[in-house]
Amino acid sequence: MYVSRLTLHDFRSYTSVEIDLDAGATAFIGSNGQGKTNLVEAIDYLSRLDSHRVSGDAPLVRAGAERAVVRADVVRGSRTALLELEITPGKSNRARVNRAALTRTRDIVGVLRTVMFSPEDLALVKGDPSDRRRFLDSLLVLRTPRLAGVRADYDRVLKQRNTLLKSARGRRNVEIATLDIWSENLARTGAELVSQRLRLLDALAPHLIEAYVRVAADSAPDRRNVTATYRSSLDLPPELRDQDAIEEALTEQISRRRQDEMDRGISLVGPHRDEVTLMIGDLPAKGYASHGESWSLALALRLASFELLREDDDDPVLILDDVFAELDQGRRQQLAELVGDAEQVLVTAAVADDVPAALKGHRFNVAAGEVVRD
Predict the structure, then answer these.
(1) Which of 223, 224, 234 is nearest to 275 (CA)?
(2) Measuring CA to CA, which residue among 152, 47, 32 is closest to residue 95?
């Protein structure tokens, strides 16, 4: 799988741009602020309907424009699919595949699959639990696109339940029957999300261990072993994966915490409260890992994701956004060797010399809104 053409209209800094791409490695070279990251962000957004830089759609639309359009030709084997996404802040986005409109925009997720590594990924190690939950859920949806609906349903139920709890805070005549309905929905959708997250971590574990060993080869032996453990607000048995059993545990805990939730006006139980604990050796990575170890672990998480998706299906498009400036010469070469056999690798860098020779491949110079093939 690879992107053979990218077209943008009013996306970020671009009024209009169209570039032809090839399989293999492609480097976008340009000074900071020239728009090179905007190109790969558009491809990644078309894959996941999520940006690695912002949480909302508004910054994706060029200042002064009403909407942005991202269009890509995606080659998979002998077939080419045309993907189109119209982004309109404050309104529903619209998606098409081969000119046919999709009933639900989220159905475009997973048609193109990407894995992006960027400086923002340090948050996977050093950031809040929400950063690690977002990483898991995004990977879940890429592997199994129907789970985009499960995640959307859970977010909707959680929002409605929190609204009810907030309105009932401090009141005695709470609409218990309505709260029970939302609690049942929260337990049902939450159980599937938790079960899928647990299974995903099981599948990811061997790839993460191997990736970290290869990325952090110069670390002491006792600092090469990494684990990612799911920490549920339910205190589930480590081996539990059964969705029905998790739903039962959620239902019981929600019932037990009802008064606390009504007093505080917020849902205190569910996958939105869960955490993924990353360990290096015997110590938690957050708070104990050095800067270099944190970088290595973040990179290993992305490489493990790439290998897992590749194991399931075709190679995803691998995007390395402005990461080589953070790595020494040895690690740059090591990373290039790890990803050199990917179907398509898109690299951004401010300085051409930062990109290892193995990944320079095709090259575009990006400056003042112009993207020119070298």
Answers:
(1) 234
(2) 47
**pLDDT tens digits, 40-53:** 999 999 999 989 88
Say which amino acid occupies 121.
D
DSSP state of 274: -
What's the CA gap between 371 and 374, in Å, rounded? Answer: 9
For 220, 275, 285, 293, 294, the CA distances from 228, given in Å and listed in that order, are: 19, 10, 10, 15, 14
The pLDDT assigned to 174 comes to 61
pLDDT tens for 213-251 read: 888 866 656 667 899 999 998 878 888 899 999 999 999
Q: Which residues contact 11 (CB under 8 A, 6 or more apart)?
A: 38, 42, 60, 61, 62, 68, 69, 70, 87
Distance CA 270, CA 266 (A): 11
Closest by Cα among 66, 8, 68 to 35: 8
Spatial distance between the Cα atoms of 184 and 182, rounded to a whole number of angstroms: 5
Contact (Cβ atoms closer than 8 angstroms) between residue 42 and residue 354: no
pLDDT in tens, 256-314: 999 899 889 999 999 999 999 999 988 999 999 988 889 889 999 999 999 999 988 78
Nearest in space to 211 (alpha carbons), one of 297, 140, 288: 297
Residue range 163-201, pLDDT digits in tens? 999 887 766 556 778 889 999 999 999 999 999 999 999
Q: What's the pTM value of the predicted model, to 2 decimals?
A: 0.92
Type and span of the H or E element at 188: helix 176-215
331 closest CA partner among 361, 303, 364: 303
Tell me the average pLDDT of the chain: 91
